[in-house]
Amino acid sequence: MRNYLFYVLGLLLFASCSKEEVDNRESIDFYYLPRPCELMEINHACRQDMGKETGESDMDGVYYVNDNVEESVKVEDYLFRVDVGNINSEIVSDPDYSLEDYLGEHDVDMEKELDRYLEKKVDGTLKSGRLKSSSEVYAIMAGIEYRTDEVKRLEVISDVELFGVVAGSSLNGYVELFSAPQYHSFLFSHNKQLIGSIERGWSLEKYMSVRPLAAASLYLRFKSVPEETPVKAKIIVEMELANGKVLRSESDAVNLLP
User: Residue 80 and residue 212: Cα distance in Å, rounded?
Assistant: First the structure.
């Protein structure tokens, strides 16, 4: 799913909009993309230190997330991304694909909450709402995905033993949330109150305690390195929604290194 989600916000939300003479200004035009929760997909990712890549010491410890993972990755850098929605890469590649055909019903209250939140985050001219054109000369279009289904249960398991836990059993106690800087996901509680951006370091227990609405995209990572490494594993995520629907997805195998 990573090829079709509209997450340009990571590079935009905290950037100032440049101002030129008269009304020749740059603005960010937000539009909302609600989708029903019908499909789930898991993809491997990893964090990468920009200092090590560029050789610039002042960039040491500054990470970005790479969604293209090699066959092997150290556990301390390993992430897996869970995407939930109703489209996938096959659907998007269809020449007859139309974005509007796959949108769910807009939730006015949730979008008002997002309006207020984004107005505090963006310095410049904010225009938000449905798909539309802007009157500004230099308008950047930024789509925000959101879901309206409450998550009742979320389980992370593996097809092999990890952390001494037998294959197929819950690994939730060894997993935490991770926020990717180039993406932006929002956390809504079951009563559609916007808590804010998804933050790294939350345990799954804490995340589930707010009775969250499903996130369009959620990055997860292991809190520590399992003794079983190096090991080849598939990550499996099962999500039960409050409406009774159960979504399940299994990743490709990846070599996890100590």
Answer: 19
What is the residue whose two structure tokens read 């926020």? 179
Q: Would you say the pTM of this structure is higher than 0.85?
A: no
Mean pLDDT by runs of 10 across the 258 residues of the chain is 40 36 55 94 85 64 76 93 88 87 94 86 50 50 89 98 97 91 76 88 94 94 97 98 97 96
Q: Residues near 230 by Cβ (< 8 Å), separated by ≥ 6?
A: 72, 255, 256, 257, 258
Residues 6 or more apart in contact with residue 239 via CB below 8 angstroms: 37, 40, 82, 84, 151, 153, 154, 155, 214, 246, 247, 248
